[in-house]
Specification:
The complex is a heterodimer of chains A (155) and B (416). Chain A is of the alpha+beta class and 155 residues long. Chain A has four helices and eight strands, in the order H-H-E-H-E-H-E-E-E-E-E-E. The chains are: A alpha+beta (155), B alpha+beta (416). Chains A and B meet through helix 3, strand 2, helix 4 and strand 8 of A and strand 12, helix 5, helix 7 and helix 8 of B.
Chain lengths: 155, 416
């Protein structure tokens, strides 16, 4: 495995573990200072429509999402479980790489029932930071058109 | 048997929970509400702009197609083959001269009429349909379509009043305010909620839940019930528009909630444009929600614009189908602002995600108590009338009143 691919795998493993543990500050640290984060259903992607379910075109907006999650949003009490598949490097550039990785997220609700919440594809631009990477762009493309119940915690 | 004795009061201030759960009530709603004399949002003219364009939609849980023919006229029909009941048009949208069912290739025109049937005369002189088989009697079931400022409504009933009369002045004015300027679709949101569809109709008619359930509003100062606003209904009180004006001071909110409840004194968003309203027209109304009987909704929350169509999926589940809009003449900056403010609405919306959870926890807890009732008396009991204040349940009672009329279960001397 190339060093870049290994570093990408490591980053994705940390990403899933931190969201699932609700360690959102540490999760935010995986992103670079200038970054974007979008969650978009496949329906909009295929029709070429720009709107997303979550649309953060700056780090400030991504931090606001986490702030609102902590102090304002009310949502179904649940635990997340990210299953992230192997990434594929789709572009190499001097200062970073672009990758795609499939994912599934299961949610376990208050009475202990687990359901498949979402599957999709991460389309990420990773920026080199020493020997590792930071996420400078993340597009979470969800396969299903509909969100079950609601979307509060990050995918 | 469901009859008028189901109502403990004649003003709908008490509503039994069985209306959220009973499968036989759901069957009645299908016949008397969704196939009854009501008009439902089915799409926008701008979604099928050219001759031949079609889109799939729903009225209640009935799948329909809206199709613009070669002359520009828009037709509607149920998307179920008149032969053996298959979905005829499987794509969600596209452009087509006709619709051919894949099962036995019955072919329908852009108006849903039957234009071709294989083996009609049989094969080599044997078989085929009888002489009494008239294609005119075997078209797709027609849905009447009409437009108000480019918003398309459909009805399956011959008895429905004309659309203008059904909507009434207040709703027509509300739609004109949003839609007279040409709109453009910028995306779709879909949300599956494990609840009863009427829970959503109630939710949007009760304006005060927003300030209590959706903490984002209060925390970041986007909207408060202390803003000047009100609820306006149509004459039959089946539809409702709730609205509020921009507010620039925290003082009134502090007085209403107590200082500690108004968190925005200390906490700010890093990206303040999320809560900035840039007037789209010559008024200062920053929030306006139109709730139309039975299942159509129109949302203006700041610069976020959307239509919402409820698609019931049985008594215990529905989909909220939301169409996000911008204006065709938006500047690039304004469009970006709208894409950002789309974060406010939908299943991940800062001021709407909670509705999914609220409706689901009602559904879960009421299942075991079909004869218990909810309490709807904030803002007054008895007569149903417009309010010049936002904190009230009155339009929710209006919804139930017309619902009872259509189901044929109005109590004696029931209010309207």
């Amino acid at each position: 495995m190339s060093a870049d691919l290994f570093a990408a795998c490591d980053l994705l493993a940390q990403y899933g573990a931190l969201v699932d543990a609700a360690k959102y500050d540490e999760w935010l640290e995986l992103f670079s200072k200038r970054c974007s984060y979008y969650v978009k259903p496949r329906e909009n992607h295929e029709l070429g429509l720009p709107a997303g379910l979550i649309f953060c075109d700056s780090r400030a907006m991504l931090e606001d999402r986490i702030l609102a999650l902590r102090i304002a949003s009310k949502y179904n009490l649940h635990n997340d479980r990210h299953i992230i598949g192997l990434p594929r490097i789709v572009a190499n550039e001097p200062d970073g790489i672009s990758i795609e990785a499939p994912f599934a997220v299961y949610q376990t609700e208050q009475e202990g029932d687990t359901r498949l919440f979402a599957t999709g594809l991460y389309c990420d631009r990773l920026e080199r930071s020493g020997d590792s990477f930071k996420i400078s762009e993340k597009l979470v493309r969800i396969d299903s058109f509909a969100i079950q119940t609601l979307l509060a915690t990050p995918l | 048997m469901l009859d008028s004795s189901v109502w403990p009061t004649n003003d709908y201030s008490r509503v039994p929970y069985r209306f959220y759960h009973d499968p036989s009530i759901y069957e009645l709603e299908r016949e008397r509400v969704f196939k009854g004399p009501a008009w439902t949002l089915v799409g926008l003219e701008v979604e099928i702009p050219n001759p031949g364009d079609f889109r799939a939609s729903y009225i209640g849980d009935e799948p329909i197609i809206i199709h613009r023919d070669a002359n520009g006229k828009i037709h509607g029909f149920i998307n179920r083959c008149a032969h053996r009941g298959a979905i005829v048009r499987r794509e969600l949208q596209g452009t087509a001269k006709d619709h051919v069912c894949i099962y036995h290739q019955w072919c329908y025109g852009q108006d849903g009429g039957l234009i071709g049937v294989p083996f009609r005369r049989g094969l080599k002189g044997k078989g085929g349909y009888g002489k009494d088989f008239d294609p005119k009697n075997h078209g797709l079931t027609k849905v009447r379509i009409d437009s108000a400022d480019g918003v398309l409504f459909g009805t399956m009933s011959d008895k429905a009043e004309p659309l203008n009369e059904y909507l009434g002045e207040a709703i027509l004015g509300f739609l004109s305010r949003v839609f007279r300027r040409p709109v453009e679709v910028i995306g779709y949101h879909r949300q599956r909620i494990r609840g009863n569809w009427k829970g959503f109709a109630e939710n949007t008619r009760d304006n005060y839940h927003a300030s209590l359930l959706h903490d984002f509003f209060r925390t970041f100062g986007l909207d408060r019930p202390t803003q000047v606003g009100g609820a306006t209904m149509d004459k039959r009180h089946r539809h409702c528009v709730t609205w509020g004006r921009m507010e620039n001071s925290h003082d009134a909110a502090k007085e209403a909630y107590g200082k500690e409840q108004v968190a925005s004194a200390g906490i700010q968003l890093k990206e303040s444009s999320m809560v900035k309203y840039i007037p789209d027209r010559n008024d200062d109304i920053s929030i306006a929600i139109g709730s139309l009987f039975p299942s159509s909704f129109f949302i203006q929350i700041s610069n976020s614009l959307a239509t919402r169509q409820i698609r019931p999926r049985g008594p215990g589940e529905f989909e909220v189908f939301q169409t996000l809009l911008g204006y065709q003449d938006d500047t690039p900056e304004m469009r970006q602002h709208r894409l950002r403010q789309a974060n406010l609405v939908g299943p991940a919306g800062f001021v709407s995600m909670e509705d999914g959870e609220a409706i689901e926890i009602v559904q879960r807890a009421t299942k075991a108590a079909p004869n218990d009732v909810q309490v709807l008396e904030l803002g007054g009991k008895g007569a149903i009338q417009d309010c010049d204040f936002r904190i009230n349940d009155v339009p929710v009672r209006g919804f139930w009143s017309y619902y009872a009329e259509l189901l044929g279960i109005e109590p004696a001397d029931g209010v309207r």
